[in-house]
């Protein structure tokens, strides 16, 4: 079973979990939050990763290069997990729904498919309209 961890600056991670649970019902997603005050996030990260040892863990952080992402990047030296530097509702839901363990190559395929879903809808609609006229 895959353990999903969402980590963000502010309430984004909790909001993503709530949105996922709106569609899927209760989940075992773990949320970690960096606040403006010293929140002890580094210690929380270590504690959660230790508790998940031996499980297939996928961590989603809010943005590449941010302090939350940097803390998890450092944790890769001591813990075995997959780290994704972006939160996308559909991608996270797909991971939650996956019955088997998600490995790096499967996750990369899922990320690539997610990239193709990121569209400027105005352009997409214009293209659809042009295609329909031909």
Description:
The protein has 134 residues and is of the alpha/beta class. Helices cover 51% and strands 16% of the residues. Strands 2-1-3-4 form a four-stranded parallel β-sheet, with helices on both faces. The longest helix is centred in the last third of the chain and has 14 residues, at 104-117. The radius of gyration is 17 Å and the shape is globular. The model has no long low-confidence stretch (mean pLDDT 95).
Summed up, the helix count is: 6
Q: What structural class do helix, strand and pairing data support?
A: alpha/beta
Strand content: 15-25%
| Helix-residue proportion | 40-55%
Oligomer: single chain
Given the C-alpha coordinates, what overall shape results? globular
Distance between the termini: 48 Å
The major β-sheet equals: 4 strands, parallel
| Residue windows where pLDDT falls under 50 for at least 5 positions | none
Question: Main attributes?
Answer:
globular, 6 helices, alpha/beta, 16% strand, four-stranded parallel β-sheet, 134 residues
């Amino acid at each position: 079973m895959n353990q999903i961890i969402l980590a963000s600056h502010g309430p984004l991670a909790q909001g993503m979990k709530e949105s996922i649970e709106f569609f899927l019902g209760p989940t075992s997603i773990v949320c970690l939050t960096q606040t403006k005050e010293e929140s002890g996030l580094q210690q929380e990260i270590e504690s959660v990763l230790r508790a998940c040892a031996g499980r297939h863990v996928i961590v989603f952080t809010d943005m590449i290069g941010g302090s939350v992402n940097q803390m998890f990047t450092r944790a890769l030296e001591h813990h075995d997990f997959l780290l994704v530097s972006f939160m996308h509702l559909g991608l996270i839901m797909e991971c939650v729904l996956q019955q088997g363990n998600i490995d790096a190559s499967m996750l990369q395929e899922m990320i690539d498919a997610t990239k193709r879903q990121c569209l400027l809808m105005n352009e997409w609609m214009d293209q659809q309209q042009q295609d329909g006229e031909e």
